[in-house]
From TrEMBL:
InterPro entries: ABM_dom, Dimeric_a/b-barrel, Heme-degrading_MO. The keyword Oxidoreductase applies. Residues 9-100 form the ABM domain. SUPFAM superfamilies: Dimeric alpha+beta barrel. It comes from Thermoflavimicrobium dichotomicum. GO terms for molecular function: monooxygenase activity. This is Heme-degrading monooxygenase HmoA. Keywords: Monooxygenase, Oxidoreductase. The keyword Oxidoreductase applies. It comes from the Bacteria.
Length: 102
């Protein structure tokens, strides 16, 4: 828990979209995320956001704590969702935040 009494941790993954086909694939892939993430310890919520100019998506996941996020990165659930690879991807454009007011 942080000094403001919150311990939520928000992760945003920016995904460039280069074609309508790619957009369709990404939307389909992430459509299952809210339900499948419910089994992940510490998971709170998931949203997929689309830029108004359609140039990118933001996959936004909220965890109860940074520790829950880090545990998920090393989990079998993460590996299955990311092609068998654990940990943060090297080419990922990820921003992490502590939620201080909600």
């Amino acid at each position: 828990m942080n000094r403001w009494g919150f311990n939520m941790y928000l992760v945003q993954n920016r995904l460039p979209v280069e074609s309508e086909e790619q957009l369709t694939r990404l939307k389909e892939r992430f459509s299952k995320a809210p339900e499948s993430m419910k089994q992940v310890p510490g998971f709170i919520s998931f949203r997929l956001l689309q830029a108004e100019d359609h140039s990118h998506l933001i996959a936004e996941t909220v965890f109860q704590s940074k520790e829950d996020f880090l545990n998920w990165l090393e989990s079998d659930h993460f590996k299955r969702a990311h092609g068998g690879k654990g940990g943060e991807r090297k080419n990922a454009n990820i921003n992490n935040y502590m939620v201080i007011i909600s």
